[in-house]
Amino acid sequence: xxxxxxxxxxxxxxxxxxxxxxxxxxxxxxxxxxxxxxxxxxxxxxxxxxxxxxxxxxxxxxxxxxxxxxxxxxxxxxxxxxxxxxxxxxxxxxxxxxxxxxxxxxxxxxxxxxxxxxxxxxxxxxxxxxxxxxxxxxxxxxxxxxxxxxxxxxxxxxxxxxxxxxxxxxxxxxxxxxxxxxxxxxxxxxxxxxxxxxxxxxxxxxxxxxxxxxx
Length: 215
Known about the structure:
The protein is of the alpha+beta class and 215 residues long.
C-alpha cells in the first residue's frame, strides 16, 4: 500500500508541472494561423508590374505584444528598371540618421535600409541577385511611419558604406537583425521572397492584407 501511494505521489509530482507548463498563458493567443500558398500567390500577382513591392499577408499575434508579420516581396530587375510612377510632390519631414558626410565614398551603395525594431527573415522563392548587408548608413533619412500592416515600422534609409555583397538564389535564407543594413545591389531579372518579421509593439495584430481579406 505504501509503495502504491508513493508511486501516485511520484507520478503526480511529474505530471503536475507538465500540466501547468502546458496551459496557455493568460492573455496570449491559443490558436495557430495558416497562410496558404494560394494567398501568397494572390498577393504576389498584384506586385509583378511594379519595380519594388513589399506587402505583409497577415500580422499574427504571438503573445506579450509581439507579432509575426508574414509577407511576400517582389523586386524587378535593377538592370532594366520599370518607369517610375508619377508621384505628387510632398514635404519630406524625415530627420537625418546615420553618418552625415559632404563627400561620401565613391563605392557607397544606394538603397540601404535598416529597421529600428524588426528582425527580417527572407526565403528566396524565385529569381535572385546580389544583396548587400552590414556596414553603416551615410546621409540617411529616418522614417517614423508605422502603418498597421507595415510592411515595416520606423527605420533609416540612405547610402551603405562598408557593406559586403552576397549572392542570393532560390532556397537561400537571409536573416537581418534590427539596425543592420540590407538592400539589393544587382538583380538581373527579378527576385521574389517570403518575409518573416517578428517585432514587438510595431504592427497591429490581426491585420490582414486587403487582397486576401475577403474570400
